[in-house]
Amino acid sequence: MSTKEKISEELLLKEEVVTQNEIVLYNDEVNTFDHVIDTLITACEHTPEQAEQCSIIVHHNGKCTVKTGLYDDLKPRCSMLLEAGLSAEIV
User: Fold this and answer.
1) Residue 6 banded pLDDT, cuts 50, 70, 90
2) In sequence order, which residues have a C-beta less than 8 Å from that of residue 37 and are 6 or more positions away?
3) Beta carbons within 8 Å of 47's beta carbon, 6+ residues apart
């Protein structure tokens, strides 16, 4: 007969809570698709495909989250969107 020894280890994980914010882009009747796409590529570092998809979502749904991250990273990006005449906010 063999004796099986069970070793129980407790692992405590320290969980870091990081607050993620979002830039939400809103639809308007002023800006063209091309302008929105170009601005998303510049301000949010989107690929052309990502920017096009976001512009379509904004057009059909009225809004779209275009970037997620820390507030300090999002603030200048949102400012660029606003300066380009787009409607956006950080939530």
Assistant:
1) low
2) 48, 51, 52, 55
3) 41
* Secondary structure of residue 22 in the 3-state scheme: strand
Predicted TM-score (pTM) of the model is 0.81
Domains identified in the chain, total number: 1
Instruction: Say if CB 39 and CB 29 are below 8 A apart.
Output: no
Q: Is residue 16, in this structure, part of any structural domain at all?
A: no
Containing domain of residue 86, as a range?
31-90
Given a cut of 70, is residue 9 above it in pLDDT?
no
Buried b (16+ CB within 10 A) or exposed e, 14-50: eeeeeeebbbbbebeeebeeeebbebbeebbebeeee
- Taking alpha carbons only, the member of 16, 15, 37 closest to residue 25 is 37
| Cα angle 47, 86, 43; round to 5 | 35
Domain membership of residue 6 (yes or no) is no
